[in-house]
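Hey,
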Amino acid sequence: MKTYLTADCLTVGYRGKPIISDISMNIRRGSIVTLIGPNGAGKSTILKSIIRELSPLGGSVYLDGRGIGEYSDHEFAKKTAVVMTGRPDPELMTCFDVAAAGRYPYTGRFGILSGEDKKKVRDALSMVQCEDLADILFRNTSDGQKQRVLLARAICQEPELLVLDEPTSFLDIRHKLELLDILKRLVHERNMAILMSLHELDLAERISDYVLCAENGTIGRAGTPEEVFEKEYIANLYGIRHGSYLTSLGFPELPRTDGTPKVFVIGGMGSGIPVYHALNRAGIAFAAGVIHENDVEYQTAKALAAKVVSEIPFEPVGEQAYLQAEKFLDSCEAVLCPLTVFGTMNSRNRELWRSAKELGKLQQINLDKSDSGDILIYK
C-alpha cells in the first residue's frame, strides 16, 4: 500500500526553538498512527506542523508525494481535515452550521450548500450520533457533543488524511468507544489515513496500527502496539515511579500496599480482581494464589499483592505451589475466596478453601458500603 504522508528528519518547535527533532514517519491510507508520550513532549507541536499551523524548523513533510508547502489552502483542505483541542465559540451557529463549515472546499466563493452538500452534512452528523443536535446552537452543547460535531465537520471535508489532537479528551467512556469505532470505520470504509495523539494508553493500544513515542526531544520507540506497549518501557517513558502499567490489560495500577500479608485471596479466572482493588484501596497487604501465569488476573495480582503464589500455564497446581500457598493461608488473619469454580488445573485451590474453612479463617466477601460509608472488604 502506498505511503500517503511522509515526514523525514523533521524538527518542530516555536519561535525558532526546537522542541522535538529527528522525526520520521510513514503513514498509509487505511491505517491509524498514534502519538503517545508525556505532557510537554511535543505531540501537539508535531501535529500542528503537519497541518501547516506551524512551520517546521527543519526536515520535510510530503503529502501524497508533494511537499505540504506546495499545496494551496484550498487543495490542502481537500486532502486534510483537522480536529484539534481548541474549541470554537460561534454565537449563533447551530451544530448543522458548524458541521457544514467542513464543506467549504467544495461550495465555492459564497459558501452556498447544494442539496448534495446538505445530505453529506446530515450523513456526517448521523455518523457521529449528533443528528438530533442539528438545530441546536453549538455553544449550548456539552464538551463531548462539541467534540463529535467537530469530527462531523472534519468528515464533511471528505479528507484523505484526518489529524486529531486528543480526540477523546472530553468524552465519557461510551462516547470514547463510539468515536474510536467511527475512526475505525473511516479507515476501513473510506480508506483514510489517520494521525492522532492520545493520552489514554489502553485506547491507543487497541485502536492503533502503529505507535510513535515522543520522548526526550525526539521519537523514541516506534512500532506496532505489540512492540511499543512493553511494561518497563512505558513505565520509563512516563516516569512512573509510584504504581505500574499493566501491558496486557492496558491500564495503570496504583502502588501496592506493602507489608506482611494479613489476608490470603484464593483467586483465579478474573474473580480476584475486584477483591485485590478493594484490599489495596483499604491499605491491607495481601497474598494471592494459586494463580496460573496465563490467567487474566495474574498481572493485576503481581501489581497489587505483597506476595503471589503462581503456577506455570497449562499445568495443574503442583505440590510446591500448594505448600507455599498453604504457608500464607496459615500465617494470614483471614482468607477470601472469590473463586467459585474449581477444575482439574486448580483442584488444589479447592483444598486451600477447605483448609481455610476448617481453620475458621474463611471470611465472607462484602464489597458494599457500610453505614459509615466505608467499603467492607470482608466480615
